[in-house]
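dude i think i finally got it to work??
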Amino acid sequence: MKISIFLFLSSLAMAATPSFNVVEASIPEIRAALDQKRITSRELVTLYLARIGMYEDKLHCIITVNPNVMKEADDRDRERAQGRARGALHGIPIALKDNVLTHDIVTTGGALAFDGFIPPYDATLVKNLRDAGAIIIAKTGLSELANWVAGAPTPMPGNYNAMRGFGYNPYDPRRDPRDGSNDGRPVLQTGGSSSGVGTAANFWAGNVGSETSGSILSPSNQNMLAGIKPTVGRISRYGVIPITADQDTAGPMAKTVTDAAIMLGALESPAPDPNDAATKLCTPPPGRDYTKFLKAEVSRVPGSVSRAPFSTSARTCPNGGVGRRKHRHPADVAAAGAATVIR
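look at this
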């Protein structure tokens, strides 16, 4: 992967500085800023690319940045100006695990054997995201081929792929210095084989992972995200590099439960996908809107919910120098785990 910091900083210099901060911004907040013309999708993408340029060399969470991302942003801005917003994610950057096929972005599964491979079609979930107006900003790291390439006695380490090496947790991106573990692996694991690192580091608004057994839930836990592993068939698996049809499913990973619910609706097809028979078993809710199922019983509790990370040192946190994420949406209590209510 070639990421030019000069290119990113140059694009920043050419753009007007918007009065919007992408750090910890939720999808509803981004959507409101776009609707109110406080920021354009081009400016939004530029801000995210600047963060990628500053921090990716430390985190190794990206395999490929979409070379057409600025064009996609301009297209979404043009549609918005014409009153033709596509859907809930219009003009909002989303990243995909690099086992999800895209017809216009290299898809490797993390394997050198597929370096440079451009699939002939989009995965169904990619079509759905684009129909909802999402901008595909990048393909994320993963355990190579979702950790299905090497077993005992020499198993491949989790969170490693030959394209990018190990990924690093944004809450502590150090290498493990201990004897026997000093092969480049992180001192704080990123979890599973889907990368939530870039979402936690505010490289984009949310990302799509895939899970056979733990690769959405584990990295969501390790990176303090809200992740959803849907019922098999809820999201079409067509165009996602498989392991087993009994368990494989894609799902959203985001900074808040509200964001994850919005993404879940966008990922799901409005009707069964003829390329995935399992989708016949799952009927989407009206409008594919999962936000109406969020519960806000704790809305009367003052303050916010905080999930303390393993490290609260600003030195180790590229997410804006903040080592503590506060979930301001009451619905996000469900994702807080052992949460502390700040009164």
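The radius of gyration is 19 Å.
im so relieved honestly
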